[in-house]
Structure prediction request, 257 residues.
Amino acid sequence: MKRVKHVIDALRALGLRCGLKYYFAGKVLSAIGWGGSLYKLYPPQSAYPLYLRPGTSDRDVFRQVFIEGEYDIVGRDTDQAETVIDCGANVGITTVYLATIFPKAQLFAIEPDPGNFSVLWKNTRSFRDRVHCINSGVWSHQVGLKVECGNYRDGREWTTRVRTVTDGEKADLQATSIEDVMQEYGLHSVDLLKVDIEGAEVALFDRGYEEWLPHVKAMAIELHGDEAEDKLNDALSDVPVSFRSAKHGETSLLIQD
Prediction:
């Protein structure tokens, strides 16, 4: 019955053609071990196709966003955004969704994993005048980072993490802070900050947030653990603005009063 429900949910959200392709193509390609290329899905919520890698977590991200409506709360409860920063953009599925519901927005999509980033670039190329892809990890300040894959949660592509380098260790990339993005692109405020960075929110809200958090009008964030929740709450209580909150699935939406 659970499988039948998944098919019905996909058909209801995506329509017949895309729903069937989502459900069967991904499963068949994964089952036969076909991993040499990408496959395309055409969700009715987007004007452009999305590319997914068979046998990866891409299909699960697609399900969360376009079938389960993980970020529907954003479009329903926030004003029309013109500036969006997507921290932990993965392969760009949420980025494309946000670019679609906010057609006037400039989006800044940050993703550290090189494999994810290459698909992010492909998925957002139709929005190239509005989506700026940044191959980096979000942190509280500029520092060298190592990209770690396969050792967090289920170990799949959507769980890539970053950490600071140890003494003598070569960095995979340099960190980017929210303030860095705002300064580089001349942003005075951020209408929506989306954060899904696999535990790095502990570092993000550890220091430096005083400079940028008061300028964030809304934040959609997935917290990973009690320490992350504590850090966020401490940061929110430490800035001269207040936020009201709502939740949908794993995502908390904070809107500045």
User: Anything to note?
Assistant: The chain has a mean pLDDT of 91. The domain at 69-256 is CATH 3.40.50.150 (Rossmann fold).
